[in-house]
Each structure stands twice: as C-alpha cells, then as structure tokens.
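Write out a record, focusing on structure:
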Amino acid sequence: MIAGQPNAGKSSLLNALAGAELAIVSAVAGTTRDVVSQTIQIQGVPLHVADTAGLRDSSDEVERIGVARAWGQIEGADAVLFLHDLTRTASPAYAEADAEILRTLREKLSASVPVLDVWNKQDTVGAHVPAPADGLALSAKTGEGIEALRQRLLEVAGWQAVPEGLYLARARHVDALGRVDRHLEIAATQLAARLPALDLLAEELRLAQNALNEITGEFGSDDLLGVIFSRFCIGK
C-alpha cells in the first residue's frame, strides 16, 4: 500500500513499479480520489500494490471520501510504503503533516505491519538533500532507486534469494499450499470413483482454489466454477 500526502508522487511510484501508466499523474493536488491497485511481478513473485488518495483534511466531499477509503485500505495492508517528498522537507507544515500521518498509521496498524519510509523526487533535489538514513531515496520519474525498492519489497514479503531460486518463508503461504494439496487429493479420489460426485468434486476444487488465491489473488473461485459448469452438466 502506497500512502502519503498529495503530490508526493504515489501514482508515479505505482506506475514505475508496474511498468505501465495505470494511475493518472498530475501536478494538481488530490488527483487520485479512489484506490488504484495492480498485481506486479518482482522476480516472478506476485505482489499487490495499491495507490491511494493523498492523506489530508479537505473541504471537497469527493476527496474526503477518497481519503476515508484510503485509510480503510491502509488498515488491511500487509505493508505500507510511506512516501515523502524530498522537495518539501524544509517546510515545517509539510513535516508536521507527515508526522500526523505517521501517528495515525501507528494507531491504525498492527505493530507487525512494516512501514517503509520512501523519499521521492531524488532527481529534483540532487545529492544536496539526502534522504534520512532509515529511508530509501528514489525517483519515480527517472526510475532511480526503483530496483532497490523492489528488492526491499521482496524482503518484506518474506522471499529470500538462494542458489536454487526464490522460496517463501511466510508460514501462512506454506499452510495455504498444504490445504491446496489436501483438497486436490480428495478431488482426485472423487474423480476416480465409478460414479464421480461432480458437485463434491467441484467443491473440493473451489476450496483448493480459495487456498491458492490467498497467495496469488489472480483467479477466484467464481471463475473456477464458471469453467467447471461450462464444461460439465452437473445435476441439482
């Protein structure tokens, strides 16, 4: 989840990570009013990234709804990219607004949810305005630092590079794969029966897909059942 004040470059960062123009980029503050999300691939690992409305108080009713939706999405995030604007670090008002956002993040998020400080617009300020030591500086416009951010996202997601490739260390993904295996075994037993109970077979496949979808999020159970019912005649 990408969060921050308006015009910090959140939409530009989403586009840079996705490698596509998904979100509208404008110098007008408050352009993003709703959540724009995309599943990106980093070394074959699927990660869901979302751009949200700039976090601020606003008299605009539509923007207030967008900010409320942003906070709703942020509360359910596995990690938050807190995007800062290096061109405004000298502004006391900007620093205070960032501090207020951080306080709210700490109130709304579990202590286990990482908040990564990312400092954007490095290309504009150059080396004379370095990012704080605990943050990551980049330019969503030029791509500088984007690869370092991708590697950091892999670490946060629990993936580690080893000679054999990438493996997932998160226990909930291992658990999900175990449930996929069990449901597929039951489905195979149903299919091997002399008179297969296709409704039970479909249910086991649905449960397997639900477990797999916890990892990939790309193909839902409704999609799976649509394929099954389009190919088989299952009686009531």
In short: Helices lie at 10-18, 61-75, 92-108, 122-125, 146-157, 171-192, 198-216, 221-231. Strands lie at 2-4, 36-42, 45-51, 80-85, 115-120, 136-137, 159-162, 165-168. The longest strand covers residues 36-42.
